[in-house]
Structures are given as C-alpha cells and as structure tokens.
Amino acid sequence: MKTPFYDIHKSLGAKMLSFHGWEMPLQYSGIVDEHINTRTNVGLFDVSHMGRFEIKGFNAYDCLQTLVTNDISKLNDHQALYSPICHNNGGIIDDLLVYMINREKFLVVVNASNREKDLEWVVKHSKSAVVENISDKTALLALQGPLAKKVLDKTIVDVNLDQLKPFDIAITNIFGIECMISRTGYTGEDGFEIFFDSNEIDIWDKLIQSGSRFNIKPAGLGARDTLRLEAGLMLYGNDINENITPLEVPLKWTVKFDKEEFIGKEALLTQQINRKLVGFEVLEKRIARHGNEVLMYGEKVGFVTSGSFSPTMKKSIGFCFVPLHVSANQLIEINIAGKLYKAKVSSTRFYRRK
C-alpha cells in the first residue's frame, strides 16, 4: 500500500521500507540528521498510513466513552485526548487519539498496524453510532519541532496559533485547502498534525517552501522512532500489545476508574501487577533491541521492548520490563548477541523539551 505522497518520497530519494504493508520512507538525509533537525528546527512527516475513523451521531459520545479507558467527558468541542482501548481482560487492543469536533462528531486516529482490527472493534461497540473509515479519503502530515509554529504562522490567517494549546483542534485553510489541525505529535516536540483531502498533495511542497527559511526537512520513520523513544512514547507492537495492560506500563494516568463503565474496567480493577516498563541506559557501546533478555544476578527478569541510539543524548537507551521491586539507577544486564552488557534503570522519559 502507498500513501498519497509515495511519489514525492521517491523523488526526494528517500530510502523506503515496508511497514505493516505500507511503503514508507525510512529516511531521506539520514536518521540522525532528521532527528536533530526536528529537535532544533522543524521536520515534516508523512503519517497518512495511520487509520482514521469518523464516528458520528446521537450515540457517538457514548460509543467512545465505553471504548476508551480515558474520560472524554473532560473534552470540550475541538479538543483531543490520548487513550488505550482494551479487551475485557484489560489487554491493550491499541492506543489512539480521540478528536472531539462536537458531541455528535468525533475523529479517531489509530495505528497503521491495527486499522482493520480496530475498525471491527469500534463497529462492534458502536451503540448505533455511524462509523466510517475515512483513511483513504484523507491525508495526514505531522509538522514537528520548535519552529513548527513559525512555519504554520506563515500559512494560516484565521487561527491564532498562540491560543491553540496542546491537544486543541482548529478547522482552517492552509494554502486555500480546508484542513483540520491539532497541536499533537509523536516526537516530544511542539508541533501540529494536519488532516486534509487526500487529493491535495501539493500541500507537501508548499509546506516545504514555506518552511525553507526555518530549515524544514522531510523526516522518515527512522527519526520518528528515535524521537518518540527519547520522549518516552510507546510503540504499539513493541512496548504495548494485547498481552499488556495500561497498568503495567506508564499509562495508568489514562485509566479513569471513576468513570461509570468502560471495556476492561473490571479486569483492571482486580489485576495483580508483577512487572513494570522502565527506561534504561546501556553503559557500554552497544544498542539493545526488542526481545533482548534482561537479567539480574544471572537470572532472567524481563525483556527489552524498544532500544536505539539516542542522537540527542548520544547514548544507547531503551525500554524494558522488570519486576516491580526494581528501582531507578539500579543495574541490570542485557543479553545482546549472546554477551551480557551492563545497563542502568531510568525513567522512560529521557528527553523533555525546554
């Protein structure tokens, strides 16, 4: 499968890879270069492979309030929130963003790998709300970095971006194209995600032109992964899945037990937690990867879920599961290619923007 921007990526010389069936750019100028440019200037990401569902009608609110563990009653019109959706046993089906246009119209953005599964689950629990998969009708770009606002300021006249807070939404025009923008992203930086008709691919080139004075660069999935890891953001399929609950990873804040009801509530209320997801820093020059064993005192105690070199901190970092008693700065060992390397336990949040 290809996003509307496939030919643009090829023309820019992007190194492509297959990602859950999608032909996506891994990198253009290089992962480290794109990562650092997003941290210091602004990066443009094609994230049109993500799934987009519209949920409309009288029961749209009740449908979503039952599906997500978070509480959409906290939302006003034109606001978004992050939440897992869970099975009855508390296992995470997916993590997603819910955008509330109004009480009878919502947009949900889900992971590319879970499009079909999520759509089936949402329809099953729709409470007669109208659910439409608008993924192919729409495109989605992410403009991320400390200068992202300056790029958009040049293109938007009817929205004061200073008043658009994180997770706020605005309906506007960019280059005469009707768009929905949200102050959201997956990099740990300030930034915006831009939704628009999938035929309007000229918006990519126009954003690149508008952002040229701010050193805008296209960025691929490689930089997206290292950026989200530094920011402590989890990746579905690596750090969370249907065998992991939100209480075992740093997502307890998204589980609102004071809500009347949501799918998985009973299981989560009674779950006996015996592991947790933590960050780690490898103390030697090796990179740990997904699936590497984690040991303490010669005994296997967990496994690595994500690992990479951090371009910002210039060291090897990652996430892993360990027993509950393990604390920050405690030493662990990670089995990388049959050899044990020392690592230090940390928070999952390695980077915070100033």
Structure write-up:
The protein has a six-stranded mixed β-sheet, sandwiched between helices. A six-stranded antiparallel beta barrel has the order 14-17-16-15-18-19. Helix 2 packs across helix 7. It is of the alpha+beta class and about 350 residues long. The protein is globular. The chain is built from eight helices and 19 strands. It has three domains: about 140 residues, Probable tRNA modification gtpase trme, domain 1 (Gyrase A, domain 2, 2-Layer Sandwich); about 80 residues, Alpha-Beta Plaits (2-Layer Sandwich); about 70 residues, Aminomethyltransferase beta-barrel domains (Elongation Factor Tu (Ef-tu), domain 3). Strand 6 and strand 7 form a beta hairpin.
Any key phrases for this structure?
Gyrase A, domain 2; Elongation Factor Tu (Ef-tu), domain 3; single chain; 354 residues; six-stranded antiparallel β-barrel; 8 helices; 3 domains; alpha+beta; Alpha-Beta Plaits; globular; 18% helix
Work out the helicity level.
10-25%
Shape, principal axes of CA atoms: globular
Total individual domains: 3
Secondary structure tally: strands:
19
From the coordinates shown, what is the CATH architecture of the largest domain? Answer: 2-Layer Sandwich
Q: Would you give the CATH topology of the largest domain?
A: Gyrase A, domain 2
> What is the ordering of alpha helices and beta strands?
HEEHEEHEEEHEEHEEEHEHHEEEEEE
Would you identify the CATH H-level superfamily of the largest domain?
Probable tRNA modification gtpase trme, domain 1
Structural class: alpha+beta
Across the major sheet, the strand order is 10-11-12-9-3-13
Low-pLDDT residue spans: none
* CA-atom Rg in angstroms: 20 Å
What's the tally of helices? Answer: 8
CATH class of the largest domain: Alpha Beta
Mind describing the biggest β-sheet? 6 strands, mixed
> Overall pLDDT, averaged?
97
The CA-CA distance between the termini, in Å, is 38 Å
Strand content: 35-45%
